[in-house]
Design goal:
alpha+beta, eight-stranded mixed beta sheet, four-stranded antiparallel beta sheet, 8 helices, 29% helix
Length: 349
């Protein structure tokens, strides 16, 4: 499948650097946005894991607790090649609080266990805290300047490359599925491929918006804007335009791009014409999403890291800390900062 390079909001970085040179260079702490209420039929199990994936840990917990794997849930997948903290939820109605003293799984440490009334569901988190180390930075001055801009202006809310699989294999499979060349029977695999389709189209529309306007805060009448950090949105009318421009510029509102699926486009006017122009070639994918009854949605094109801070370990090594809302990718922040590997030859400006 042909790869269309994504544009940078601040222009192509001039510095190069490397992330994930060791597992400890990439740390993630999940922020559910609430704490356990210490009652109820669910067990919240806070763990720290190193070098293992989320589903593998969930299955191991289910086996240890002698419950079906479907009774262990989590808010989101966390990177395998990282040190991550996250909460798993096990449904244990009417049972005493189990001891985890005998639980052993390489790379996993139990941090806290508590009762809770509600199940943790996919997407049910506020966000994630990140601590990243970037090594072999070629131009510290350039990176320092871009850090200051990112902390105030934000970055494109691109879905990270991990969403698409190695060599974008998920999109290749989705293309074959949409063309009727293969069948995908596994429910989880179907969901993964459909998500990859929507993520890629969102990225392409967001990139095209940067190419068109050199910004993600220039508003059109007919745009769909979202309250920052909330799901609520509305379409910008002529009467609301001036007021909405101010609210977008001060960060209260974000302009959105489509997560395509079943349902009529909500944007109108110039925004609708622009989006249609850039998704017209994706009709086979859109038809697949409609057949699979995936509802259309919207996603903010711009994300601003919160609580952003950084320090230089030495002249070529940077440590940076920040918080991102659920669904946003730390790698998209790093992408705006330095070129890495294959990005060095990426022609998009």
């Amino acid at each position: 499948m042909e790869i269309t390079p994504l544009h940078w909001l601040l222009g192509k970085p001039s510095a190069t650097g490397l992330i994930k040179q060791s597992t400890s260079d990439f740390r993630v702490i999940e922020d559910l946005g609430y704490t356990a209420d210490h009652q109820g039929e669910h067990l919240l199990i806070r763990i720290r894991k190193t070098g293992c994936n989320t589903r593998f840990v969930a299955d191991a917990l289910a086996k240890f607790l002698k419950i079906p794997a479907r009774e262990v849930s989590y808010a989101g997948m966390k990177d395998r090649h990282a040190v991550t903290e996250q909460t798993f939820c096990a449904r244990l109605p009417g049972k005493e609080m189990p001891s985890f003293a005998a639980f052993e799984l390489e790379g996993v440490e139990i941090l806290e266990v508590a009762r809770h009334q509600r199940k943790v569901r996919i997407g049910g988190l506020a966000g994630n805290y990140f601590q990243l180390v970037i090594r072999d930075i070629s131009d510290a001055q350039s990176v320092e300047q871009r850090l200051a801009l990112i902390s105030t202006q934000g970055v494109p809310n691109y879905f990270g490359e991990q969403r698409f699989g190695r060599d974008r294999h998920n999109l290749t499979l989705a293309e074959q599925w949409a063309a009727g060349e293969i069948r995908i029977k596994d429910r989880a695999k179907r969901s993964l491929l459909l998500s990859a389709i929507r993520s890629d189209i969102f990225n392409q529309v967001t990139s095209a918006r940067i190419a068109e306007q050199s910004t993600l805060t220039t508003l059109w009448v007919g745009d769909c804007v979202q309250l920052t950090g909330r799901g609520s949105w509305f379409i910008v009318s002529d009467d609301e335009y001036d007021e909405t421009v101010t609210r977008v510029r001060n960060g209260e509102l974000r302009i959105t791009a489509p997560l395509v699926g079943k349902g009529n486009p909500v944007v109108t006017g110039s925004a609708a014409e622009f989006e249609q122009q850039h998704i017209a070639s994706q009709q086979p994918f859109i038809d697949l999403l409609i057949r699979e009854k995936v509802d259309a949605a919207r996603r903010a094109m711009l994300v601003c890291p919160r609580e952003m801070a950084w320090t230089w370990i030495d002249e070529h090594t940077l440590q940076m800390n920040f918080w991102l809302p659920a669904g946003s990718f730390a790698t998209s922040v790093v992408r705006e900062l330095v070129l890495q590997g294959e990005m060095i030859e990426d022609p998009a400006e």
